[in-house]
Amino acid sequence: YLYINVFFRYVYGGAVLFGKWENWGLLDGAYFCFISLSTIGFGDIVPGDMIRQDEGIELSFIFCSMYLMLGMALIAMCFNLMQEEVVHKIRTCGDTVRRITRCNRS
Predict the structure, then answer these.
(1) Which one, of 39, 41, 30, lies nearest residue 73 by Cα?
(2) pTM for this model (two decimals)
(3) Does any domain span residue 103?
(4) Who's near 53: CB < 8 A, 6+ residues apart?
(5) Confidence label for 105 from pLDDT (cuts 50, 70 and 90)
(6) Is 94 contained in some domain?
(7) Where are the transmembrane segments (predicted)?
(8) Is residue 106 domain-resident?
(9) What is the DSSP letter of 79?
(10) Could you tell me if 18 and 33 are in contact, meaning their C-beta atoms sit under 8 angstroms apart?
(11) pLDDT band at 2 (very low <50, low <70, confident <90, very high)
């Protein structure tokens, strides 16, 4: 369950960073991170709304893009690890069932 922990820590870290940078609450930051990383993207909360044009909106968008690209790669890795674990458990259960049925035939 390490991958679930990694995912929630990544969302929490993003929520804290975006919350401080955009003057959002922790819940709004977590909502933005989860919705964006899950590629739902409603567009109701957008980074850069609170930043004036001369204060570095480009930096905000670059940071947000990097956070989202790294996060999507992290989520893909977590899903792959979960899939491998499920496949391993199913194979182990299948092997156990085969052994049990072989023993009962003797």
Answers:
(1) 39
(2) 0.75
(3) no
(4) none
(5) low
(6) no
(7) 29-47, 59-82
(8) no
(9) H
(10) yes
(11) confident
Q: How far is CA 2 from each of CA 8, 12, 74, 94, rounded to the nearest angstrom? A: 10, 15, 12, 25
CATH number at residue 54: 1.10.287.70
Alpha-carbon distance of 43 to 74, in angstroms, equals: 22
pLDDT tens digit sequence for 20-79: 888 899 999 999 999 999 888 888 888 876 666 656 777 878 888 999 999 999 999 988
pLDDT of res. 32: 93
Q: What total number of domains does the chain contain?
A: 1
Q: Can you tell me which residue has the tokens 């670059």?
A: 62
Look at the block and give the residue holding tokens 């957008």. Answer: 46
91 in any annotated domain: no
Domain with 52, as residue range(s), is 2-81
Q: Considering only residues 55 and 82, tell me which one the structure prediction assigns the higher pLDDT.
A: 82
Kindly state the tokens that stand for 35: 């919705």
